[in-house]
Amino acid sequence: MRDCRFTQKRISPEENIHPEETGNWLQYLKYNYSVNKMNLNSDLYSINPIPFPSVKRFFKETLPQLGWNKNDENEVGFDAGCGPGGTTVEWILPLFPKLKIFYAVDILTNMIELAQKENFHPKIEYSVANMEDWSTIKHWKGQITKLVSVYSLQWLKDQRQGFQNVYQLLKAGGEAAILYVMESPLFPTLVEMQNKPKWNKFFEGIDLHISDAYHKKFNASYYKEILKEIGFDILYCKEEMTDDVFISEKQYKDFFTSICVLKSHVPENKEEEFEKEFFEAMDKYNGRNANESPVHRGKILELLIRKPDNTRI
Ligand SMILES: C[S@@+](CC[C@H](N)C(=O)[O-])C[C@H]1O[C@@H](n2cnc3c(N)ncnc32)[C@H](O)[C@@H]1O
């Protein structure tokens, strides 16, 4: 495995005590060092590789209709933000019956380790890399013929840089299919939980990894503009409201707990209380369907973009 720069560790409850409570400056430095590191639960995430029917539709119907049903043995694929690899193997790889190689990267070491263990495939090479940091992906410059990214690029701090890096990775004529989360009930829930006086001391300065579209009220035309500025041809761009029903309460809870960036900063003895309040807030923003089943009501940007044929690399 190629490991570039990023490691993460779970913050122990002892370290997770805010310095105001302890007066311990060494602890304070350790706290600040770890506070901005993203920590997601890969084991919990991998139980349900992206459980959304709308994502499956995109791979099974939309992309084949847009010409992604024809490919050859020279295809070089890439999954940006692959998580533990379940979506890569189950939904993305079937699009490429013929393929030279498929690279799949994620910023988190635990995601990649799990992908290598649980979702091994002879054609997939998993590595740790940061889509925002060109130095960690530059060895693939101009090589990728088909790039996919599912629910990942909105996690980047500098999302324009992420799109720019996608452009640099693609070979001339190469295409990228991206599902980008513009709005999700998760976003206001994280903001609410971070700002609650009761929890705030544990979450100061933590990056919530929320989409620019949510904070700045960008719509699809904003993204189209920046993609055009970068040099992409836009083949398909659709802003879609999704209403994805979870098959069980457990699936819903496992999924959102696994991607809750605040969770690992909660002391162990307060985890249960935090989860209860977190899901009360989720229910408030998310709602349920007529059968009381949990749903994900998100606004998703579906994109198919191409690096023009006439570029030099
Ligand atoms: C919601 S998960 C989606 C995972 C996978 N694409 C799927 O469909 O199941 C988002 C993933 O993006 C990864 N991620 C976040 N920021 C990243 C970055 N800067 N570079 C690479 N991966 C990143 C996270 O670690 C996480 O595994």
From TrEMBL:
<feature type="domain" description="Methyltransferase type 11">
    <location>
        <begin position="79"/>
        <end position="177"/>
    </location>
</feature>
<dbReference type="InterPro" id="IPR013216">
    <property type="entry name" value="Methyltransf_11"/>
</dbReference>
<dbReference type="Pfam" id="PF08241">
    <property type="entry name" value="Methyltransf_11"/>
</dbReference>
<dbReference type="GO" id="GO:0032259">
    <property type="term" value="P:methylation"/>
</dbReference>
<dbReference type="InterPro" id="IPR051052">
    <property type="entry name" value="Diverse_substrate_MTase"/>
</dbReference>
<comment type="similarity">
    <text>Belongs to the methyltransferase superfamily.</text>
</comment>
<keyword id="KW-0489">Methyltransferase</keyword>
<keyword id="KW-0808">Transferase</keyword>
<dbReference type="GO" id="GO:0008757">
    <property type="term" value="F:S-adenosylmethionine-dependent methyltransferase activity"/>
</dbReference>
<dbReference type="InterPro" id="IPR029063">
    <property type="entry name" value="SAM-dependent_MTases_sf"/>
</dbReference>
<protein>
    <recommendedName>
        <fullName>Methyltransferase type 11 domain-containing protein</fullName>
    </recommendedName>
</protein>
